[in-house]
Amino acid sequence: MEKILLKNLDKPDAHKIENYIQYGGYKAFESALKLKPDNIIQMVKDSGLRGRGGAGFSTGLKWSFIPKDPTIAKYLCCNADEGEPGTFKDRGIIDNDPHLLIEGMAIACYAIGASNAYIYIRGEFAFGANRLDAAIKEAYAKGYLGKNIQGSGFNLNMYVHRGFGAYICGEETALLESIEGYRAQPRKKPPFPALAGLYGKPTVINNVETLSCIPAIIEKGPEWFSKIGPEKSPGPKIYCVSGHVKRPGLYELPMGTTARDLIYNHCGGMLTDKPLKAVIPGGVSAPMLTPKDLDTPLDFDSLAAKGSMLGSGAVVVMDESTCMVKTAYIVNRFFSHESCGKCTPCRDGTPWLTNVLRRIEHGEGKPGDVELLESLCTNIFGRTFCPLGDGAVMALRGALKNFREEFQYHIDHKRCMVSGR
Amino acid sequence: MVTVKINGKEITVEDNTLILDAARDAGYDIPTFCYQADLVGVGSCRMCLVEIEGQKKLQPSCVTPVLHGMSINTETQQVMSARSSMLEFLLANHAMDCPVCDKGGECELQDMVYKFGPHTGRHSEPKFKFHEKDYQLSPVIIKNSNRCVQCMKCVRVCREVVGANVLGALGRGDHQEPSSFFRHFLDCDQDGNCIEVCPVGCFMRLPYRYQARPWDLKGSDTICSYCGVGCRMVIEQRDGVVLRAKAQLGVGLNSETLCARGRFGFDFVNHPERLTTPLIRKSGRLEPATWEEAINTIVENVRSTNGAHIGGIASPRLTNEELYLFQKLIRGVLRSPNIDSTSRWEQNAVESYVAATGMNEGGVSVFDCLEADTVLVIGSHLSDENPVTDYIVRRISANRRMNLIIASPRAMKLDSSANTLLRHNPGTENAVLNSLALGVFAANADKLANNDSVKALKDSRIEDLLTLAGVKDSEINTIAQKLHASSTVSIIAGTEFLRFPEGTIGLAALKNILKSLGKKVLVMPTLDRANQRGAWEMGVHPNFGPGYSELREKGRGVDGMLLAAQNNQLDVLYVIGSDIASMYPEQELAVSALQKVKFLVVQDMFLTDTAKLAHVVLPGSSFGEKDGTFTNQEGRAQLIKKLLPTPGKAKKDIDIIRAIGEHFDRSFGPKNALLVLDEIRKEVPMYKDVNLLFNNRKNTENKLDNKASLVAAADSAALSIGEFKTKVERKTPDAPFQLVTGNHLFHSGKYSRMSRTLLGLVQGGEVEISEEDANSLGLKNGDRVKVRGRAYEATLTLRTKRGTKSGVAFIGENFDDAPIGKFFRRGDDIPRVGITKA
Asked: Which fold has domain A330-413?
């Protein structure tokens, strides 16, 4: 497939604006400025683009919720708080092709009528944040940002906001709180950010990958875009593959590539000759797939039908040498460490799960612990304030469903079923 | 209106009603931790999850509004299991030290676990502990985070209601701990509202710690005896010692809030220095005596005295009933026109203030005031003088579109809620209001051509007014524009109008002009004594009788009485609860005059400076030892209730007044407070229909305003606004600061000095100036400084405040080492002081 999002990744110094323009950049923005904002929203709607952050909500629809009243200030926030373990797709774009993101954001701002845009980038991405800062400076100098852009009368300011290392900031309303200078904890919805977001004003929050799709849609048309991949969730998708494969890394493929195709064709197969045991298809909160599900297309709807989710598209491949109890423990420890503390079930429930998993992993499990875990999962799931707690439960439930006997073995024999230790 | 089904029961409620409230209306209570009616909903504790038919997940009812046709279930198996599972999570890391927890017995967590389970524990992991020992957050707050349920009400009340914003959360996840900035000792308002809202034993009162179990306490629903806000509270005692004061959600206009004075300042009731027996001066010394001797001595000395040579001064902290009887005794029985209730304010200033604020027009609810388009706060340091009014203004102004304008020389906490701030020179309220009136006139010249107030302003030049007030033209224009554009205007006018009565002229003028433009204008006075308004309405004032009625002859106020005493023309002075010797502006005059009174009777709780000069001292009662009513600044009459008997041989003030009265007139007074109230209702038409019942009841809807408790308009009142001119000493390089006074946040007059808890909150006298001034003098917050006036010099601690007008120095009137009465001289210009490093 022709690369759309990662097209400039192999080209030298694509992060510099001269090179980016030379490779055909900012043309889409220039032509977008000649269109009516509503037409752009319609084009994005027609393209069928769905949010790449994990929820898979129609991007065009999200934009269309923004009130049209020109007297109200509006904001665009780019969610670059790429924190889901196993995910590194946005980083690829930010580090190597920052202007693609800036161009996508500029078009989005023009479409929704925002004159201020924020890129909320996770604190650890210092390199990427510096790259973005430099790129924004270049864009101002070239007249792609600032006042009266390219003579169109459209004004846009763009800022990079560095996070301080909390996973919860990837949750869109917590991200807004963080930009506003408050403690990063999710806000209650409704009101949704489209009506009352940043500083109480209508706000669109999109993922880096989503925004990076926009220039191509403008340039090549929504119809072209909608023909890539499955009808219900078209477009290119960056899969970030890690774990026991020969060639881990970023793969831009049409949405709906199957797991088998991705692992065995694109990534060169398993790392050693040990067979595959499980695949996490979309970041650690997505329930894992087992070898029998390898032919599932990796898109929003197919994975949902299998009880899992595409999430951020972070594919973690594990072979037979992996202990699922340890995996579940590590994943769960991550969630309990990152729980923001706002709501009761997540704050007090996830550490409890972690404590029980730690015991089981360390050979101190007790009979009934699996049932305890399941019961705690029931008590947490669907009752938390935001999806963080749900994510923790889904990951654990996936492991318990497919590898229950491993947990039981740990409890009964006080040692690991895989390594024997 | 929308119709919803709750557990199958159909109910119609207003749009946007929360499911929680709708369910409560339908008769189903939903448990909550993080929900509090006055705070912005967060929906974090998840106790209130309910089932909405057609929705997959349970929804938090405290933040979800009802939609038409919704079908909600609050008692299903799933909802119940959610409740018990949330409690199980909360208990997982809970300290479980209920036997030693102050909250044990009234803990919401305990109650809910008892009600909803779980009844067996499954958590066998090691518990996370924030700390081993409780830690102190302030002189009055101690904290145990291991008991926290993370509802964050403490943080939210501190930010949204109190505005102190000193609490926040440390850490994340299960390590999240609401506390001060890295657990530092708090330098805040110390009002303990964080304690009040805490559902568990996490925030605790330090003075109450380990003192009692809640079931051992006997309480009494009463009104705070400090400032004029009139906060409803419950004081509780065990074995005759008052241990705790608390506010209750949905009760009284203050709801769950109190200030530091109200919450911690009750311990004077059990002070060991309370007077417990009458004292009579025998050969120069005050000796214990019996009541009979004391009363007989009084009667002997009074009987033959001409009424014109008798004076009576009663404290504005007495109840309406006592004050009514007192004025009946002084005027009716002893035939004296000389009666007053305050030593701080001139008698004509009071009359002008009453007239300008329109107290005779009946009560004005603070909640009504805050429904106006524009609210102007002037002449009041609300945040310190009336902290709970400050909370109400902050809470309401945050939730509606309105202009809040604060005009004050000193910066205050409420400033952050205001749209417009005006920093004028002290004592120039008149110039500010007149220039505003001129500004409004300029926009409506045609409509106001024949207005009397405008005519009176004709000679004023706006430039002169602006220079005098020290404000800019543009500032006045902005505010005048806002007043002009509003159809309803409220003015909250404080005690500066009594200190600098010239302002009442401007207040009346502006009110008149706005009214003649067809605007609805409400003026609410703010006062710093619990029953100051009641005292005036009971006629304890030389210029008017009960209900502001006209008198045949005006009497002498405190000034006049002291002057008469100075000239040996005052034979008998009967003082109840007022400490003139230390509160009168110009202390030396007060003391020398009191020494010349031939027969001085002082009735008080303590042997005050005034009582030390008395010939007979009568031990009186505190607010916790009597029944009666207080009328707050709004004109709201509220009941106070007896909790304790008076100590020793002390008596209720009402009984003492009646005992004296009956010696002269057998049919003098009704037998108890209730009967006196009946007489008041008959004699003072303002009080005829006042309803006293409301505020004792908890109302679940949190509707705090009850118009039925407001006093009515007076039938006829003969009040006029006097002529005043505020004069300030000339500025010299040695004395650049204009001295202003008022109440310190933690004190109320000298009365609060008998509370040891309040004394612990602030060490000694303080002088407050702006940070900029301090910088230019090379001084910083906390320095010891010499404050030198023409008449007196004191060494005090410096406090700096950002945003206060340059050239203003504030000294609270509450400190023994900062006797404000020695800086001021009655009749002299307002003093200026110099501040140098001590």
From this structure: de novo design (two linked rop proteins) (1.20.1440)
